[in-house]
Design brief:
DUF3221 domain-containing protein, five-stranded mixed barrel, alpha+beta, about 100 residues, OB fold (Dihydrolipoamide Acetyltransferase, E2P), signal, single chain
Length: about 100
């Protein structure tokens, strides 16, 4: 009886670990570029997602890993971005570490 309980707990823990590893990356957003505002070291793109959420994406050469990974987004493009997400009282932000796709 003790072995059955131990095996059950082990299976539950393994299932939890596998399910967490397979979930979508929560640090990725995708949507349409609404506007661009240029700054000193890069630019901030206003992204409107399919869920009608607005994110302000800060994109710079340093944060994306160098000039070979840096791309200038244009208004109206569909993009997917990966990075560090944080919220202020009224806005959602992402510091972009990778430009996943541009359409």
């Amino acid at each position: 009886m003790k072995n059955i309980k131990k095996i059950s707990v082990l299976l539950i823990v393994m299932t939890f670990i596998i399910s967490c590893a397979c979930t979508k990356d929560k640090n990725t957003i995708s949507g349409k570029v609404e506007s661009i505002e240029f700054g000193k070291d890069g630019y901030t793109a206003k992204i409107n997602t399919d869920k009608n959420e607005v994110y302000f994406a800060t994109i710079s050469i340093v944060n994306v890993g160098g000039p070979q990974h840096y791309k200038q987004l244009k208004q109206g493009e569909e993009v997917a971005l990966k990075g560090e997400i944080w919220n202020t009282d009224t806005e959602k932000h992402i510091k972009v570490k990778e430009i996943v796709s541009i359409k």
